Amino acid sequence: MIEALQFEFMRNALYAGLLISLICGIIGTFVVVNRMVFLTGGIAHAAYGGIGTALFFGIPYIYGTLGFSLAAALVMTAVSLKAAHRADTFIGVLWAVGMAVGVILVDLTPGYNVDLMSYLFGSILAVPASEIVWMIAMGAVTLGVTLFFYRDLIAISYDLEFAKLRGVPVQFLYFLFMALVAVAIVFIIRVVGLLLVVALLSIPPYIAEKYSNSLGMMMIISVGLSVVFNIGGLWAAYCFDLSSGATIIIVAATGFFISLFIDYARAKIQKKHRSKT
Predict the structure, then answer these.
(1) Full-model pTM
(2) ∠ at Cα 146 (81, 149), nearest 5°?
(3) What is the pLDDT of residues 11-47, one digit of tens each?
(4) Greatest Cα-to-Cα distance within the chain, rounded to the nearest angstrom
(5) In whole angstroms, what is the distance from residue 38 CA to residue 141 CA?
């Protein structure tokens, strides 16, 4: 793969993989710890409405998808906070509506857009240099916000009632981080597509949680795992001429199942050891 880095599109893919790993590792940790995977999936699929909007009106993909994703994230988060007992239903409705609006707008768009499949399943090899700049900015904002609100994030992630008693701005932080999730999804779609985006946000933090004793350590391990999965998937896609987005997720899923096997083997060994003593 080293010789492939002489091509600009491969270098852009490598940069995109590293930057997305940073973003996914940090934001994904917040999503997993706060059990917001379904909410994140709703935002990701509703974002298809933004893709359809961008294609229909002939505007850049980022602007259309960004606006739609942010609107969906803020509405879903508001419902989750105000009416948690009905949040899953409301999220499911917005999920379906976003997809439906996107499909209709794509149908109404004259001609066939060859990039459409890359939005669904990702194409890290097609990431332009202009989006790398956006990813750098997003990574910097994500890291800065996380460091600034780190103590508050620990509080709301592990003891929500205690956080409220301490005067932590719980609702503000939820809205802020779900807005970051929405923006992150826009860029992750380029890498693995909107149909696979939830896996990249949830698998690394899920594995990292087992080997972490703090939120910060979980984020660091999650970022490291994301780097391995993204670069490993990119290398496999290059070597075997496979779809990059799907290959990245297969590599991540392999890591996921290996972690489950390790947990199972560890539990069996501990049970055997206890039975002997």
Answers:
(1) 0.88
(2) 70
(3) 888 999 999 999 999 999 999 998 888 889 989 888 8
(4) 73
(5) 24
